[in-house]
Design goal:
- By secondary structure, this protein is mainly beta.
- It has one domain.
- The chain is built from one helix and six strands; from the N terminus they run ββββββα.
- The strands form two sheets. The protein has a three-stranded antiparallel beta sheet with strand order 2-1-3, with no helix packed on it.
- The radius of gyration is 14 Å and the shape is globular.
């Protein structure tokens, strides 16, 4: 399973399966950062190519390590906020 981030594909900014002929983020990784994640529906309806693809709230690989556009937190903090999140929750990134 993955997420297409290639503007040349008609699957841009959507979940895909591998093998895949375009660039895509692999969601099964050895570093386990996507073992728990929430897809923040950025550039979702409508999807505009080049505006940016998936932003996830996911686990951080190492303390205070920067991401490439997502939001990463510790597993401990993820489990603290998880009960507070439902389908109506809106995520604001400042």
């Amino acid at each position: 399973m993955g997420w297409c981030n290639d503007i040349r594909s008609n699957k841009y900014n959507t979940e895909i399966s591998f093998p895949f002929n375009y660039s895509a983020e692999k969601l099964f990784r050895k570093d386990s950062i996507y073992d728990i994640f929430i897809h923040i529906k950025y550039n979702h309806l409508p999807i505009i190519k080049g505006k940016g693809s998936a932003i996830f709230l996911h686990l951080n690989a190492k303390k205070n390590k920067a991401t490439k556009g997502c939001v990463a937190i510790t597993k401990k903090n993820f489990f603290k906020i998880l009960p507070l999140i439902d389908k109506k929750t809106k995520v604001l990134i400042k």
